[in-house]
Design goal:
Low-confidence stretches: none
Mean pLDDT: 91
Number of strands: 8
CATH class: Alpha Beta
Oligomer: single chain
Order of helices and strands: EHEHHEHEHEHHEHEHEHH
Strand order of the largest sheet: 1-2-3-4-5-6-7-8
């Protein structure tokens, strides 16, 4: 199974990320634009990054009533993006409406369901009223997402294997919580190395600070890509 790399842009302005992106042209194909960058700069930041030759994973984690989420999917589908996230906790109807909007407006856009955030521990999940372990909740929500028509999920590395066992083989798994050996865990609690996650069955690895903050971002990216490439 092939595995690719997605770079997280940890910044509040496109001006802050452009120098790093220029270093990574030809090395990294995908970048993730999250709430921090999107809310500070708006849709134009997506267009500017796409114009540099990168494919954009827009990580907005949509979660609202079905009609609102569907309209949001319709709106962002006009942007040059290849992936978009929504919260599976929004339920079956919300996800089905989102899928319908995606199919009607952007057939090639991959909707990704977010189950349990990689920063959430078992204790944190219990505080929200979910007594099950994160792995059990991820599996429950992942199965609901697949049944609702989603073709991809965001999951921590520790849930790759059970999801691969329980879900159709063509479900795309996008995996944050990736830390090369020797890197700090930062705010992630359920992590693996790139090689471990690739072997487990991830399709995309989401990596931020270990590349973005590296003295030589291109070298750091090439090291990770070499680690996950089939030998």
């Amino acid at each position: 199974m092939s595995c690719d790399l997605i770079l997280v842009l940890d910044a509040q302005s496109t001006g802050a990320v452009t120098p790093v992106l220029r270093q990574l042209q030809g090395t990294v194909r995908w970048v993730k634009v999250g709430l921090e960058l999107f809310t500070a700069n708006g849709p134009d930041c997506v267009r500017e990054i796409a114009d540099l030759g990168f494919r954009v994973f827009l990580d907005l984690k949509l979660h609202d009533i079905p009609n609102t989420v569907a309209k949001a999917v319709e709106s962002v589908s006009r942007l040059p993006i290849g992936m978009l996230t929504l919260h599976t906790a929004g339920g079956r109807e919300m996800m089905q409406w989102a899928v319908k909007a995606q199919q009607d407006n952007a057939p090639d856009l991959l909707l990704l369901g977010v189950t349990v955030l990689t920063s959430t521990s078992a204790a944190g999940l219990c505080e929200t009223g979910v007594p099950d372990a994160p792995e059990q909740q991820v599996l429950r929500l992942g199965q609901l997402a697949a049944a609702s028509g989603l073709r991809g999920l965001v999951c921590s590395p520790l849930e790759i294997a059970p999801l691969r066992h329980a879900l159709p083989a063509d479900i795309t798994l996008v995996t944050p919580g990736i830390r090369p050996r020797g890197s700090q865990a930062d705010d992630q609690t359920r992590i693996m190395t790139p090689a471990e996650a690739a072997r487990a069955g991830a399709n995309y690895l989401v990596v931020g600070r270990p590349i973005f903050k590296a003295p030589d971002p291109a070298a750091a990216a090439r090291s990770i890509l070499g680690e996950i490439s089939p030998s």
